[in-house]
Amino acid sequence: MNDAFDVQRFHLVDLPERLAAGNAALAAADAAPLGPITFVTDSGEWTYVPEAGTIRVHEGVLDESRVVVQIDDASFADLAADLDTPVAMLYQNRATVVRGNPLRFVRWEPALRAIFHGRPIYNADTISLIDAHGRVIDPLASFEMDAVHSDPQALAQQLSTVGFVVARDVFDEAETAALLNEADSLRASAQPGDGTSWWGKNADGEAVVTRVLNGSTMPTLKALYDNDSVRAIVAATGLQLRSAYRDEVDGVTVLWKIPDMVEGLADLPWHRDCGMGGHAMNCPTLVMTICLTEGTPEAGELRALPGSHNTSHPFVDGNAPGAPTGVAVAVSAGDVSVHDGDVMHVSLPPTSASGPHRVSVLLSFSRADAVQHRGERHYNDALLSNADGQVEHIGHRLRG
Questions:
Q1: Which one has a higher pLDDT value, 4 or 362?
Q2: Where are the domains of the chain?
Q3: What is the mean pLDDT of the chain?
Q4: Per the count of CB atoms within 10 A, which of 247, 281, 304, 375 is most buried?
């Protein structure tokens, strides 16, 4: 937290100025159906009321407040600085919803980012996929490695415009087999509650490993950061980023898509990778996903919202009514996708019970000065609070 942040001054001076400068207009339509939200802080109570195409700030708790959030000044300061998120605060019990549905607080996030920072809210009808040179970009375009080397600027334009890019045939059959072998070893040795794996439950009630975080303990997986093709793809993005946590937990992650999962986060909702916090100090970030099997709908596909990395969009389950469709990040064994950490993406459940199902390796790249703003190890550690390693879906957690 910035010790100079004054919650009262923020609401009496700073926020009204931002709202008048246009931030209210950005947020009003998205916030209108949600109704007023109140923050009860150490320094006072403040209600944001969407009305008549704008957002008005009132002191005190109003009778019509649909959700009332108890939050200390330090946590509110982090929320207002785009360093923390409603989801993270609710996972870690750093905010308490004392009236209304906690998921309404989560749903307010895009409007809050618009109010506080002037960040537009995603609208598929107004997203432009025109690059800096005026060219219309096809979100489904992909690159062979020859093109990565010969025309890196094209890949950089694809990434900066769409928010993700696919490189084809980066790893051959022998290389993917070696990576799968090490992934299988990690999966076999994972234990519930070990702090280096995510677990869920399938329809039969069995505990199932959905993700391991300690891929850097395996030589072939760890060496991916030094792979010539990996380095070439990252360099082609034009972003000056380092390999994040390469020697630590979360440096190399492996995930498995599994059918008929009923608990846990095997199937991630529409989200951004900084959804657990840290955006203002850490982004831009990149996540590289190396597909070791198949990335089809039957296998459990990754989908993304083209152009969403410069906007905000609510977190929503991929199969929920009204959820966006996006476009498939279509990959096969040996292909690589790279996405901006701010692009909205979803990991859908497999549509086939028989498989093969998607197995992917994830590498992370971040700014050299990236830190966890509260001095902790990793933002996603908040998901590992259960002794049995079960990672709760936020919707299930808050309803339970």
A1: 362
A2: 7-117, 142-399
A3: 93
A4: 304
Is the separation of the CB atoms in 395 and 317 below 8 Å? yes
Whether domain 142-399 has CATH 2.60.120.620:
yes
Q: Is the pLDDT of residue 22 over 90?
A: yes
Q: What is the pLDDT of residues 64-98, one digit of tens each?
A: 999 999 999 999 999 999 999 999 999 889 999 99
Superfamily of domain 7-117: SCP2 sterol-binding domain (3.30.1050.10)
